[in-house]
Design a protein that fits this description.
The chain starts with a helix and ends in a 37-residue tail after the last helix. The chain is built from two helices and no strands. The longest helix is centred in the N-terminal third of the chain and has 46 residues. Helix 1 packs antiparallel against helix 2. By secondary structure, the protein is mainly alpha-helical.
Length: 117
């Protein structure tokens, strides 16, 4: 019986498994970031084609913003479950996505803070 051979194999298998996890996290980050950018490109195309004051722009724009925000939210959830040592895709991937300002609702100003006693 060889001593220590099982430990070495387990260490190699653990490393391979970590690499696969990192590759998966890289793939998730890359694909979802691409989808978010595509949605923003569609918004730009919509504005250029129909004009930002058109009815179609008004009807579609909010849905496209919601879609980009939803994808960004899911991206954050998925990447936080990636291994601690995972670094992301690196400097070649653009990680900044532009989202418009929040809507303001006319009328009373209120906050969702604590109102108990």
């Amino acid at each position: 019986m060889r001593s220590g051979s099982g430990c070495n194999k387990e260490a190699v298998m653990g490393t391979v498994k970590d690499i696969k996890k990192n590759e998966y996290c890289d793939e998730v980050l890359g694909e979802l970031a691409y989808m978010i950018q595509t949605v923003h490109d569609l918004r730009e195309m919509l504005g250029t084609t129909y004009g930002k004051e058109s009815k179609l722009f008004q009807e579609h724009d909010r849905h496209l913003i919601d879609l980009a925000e939803f994808l960004d939210w899911k991206l954050q959830i998925l990447t936080t479950s990636c291994p601690f040592e995972w670094k992301g895709l690196g400097p070649d991937v653009e990680s900044i996505v532009s989202v418009g300002p929040a809507e303001t609702i006319p009328g009373r100003d209120f906050s969702g803070g604590y109102v108990g006693g």
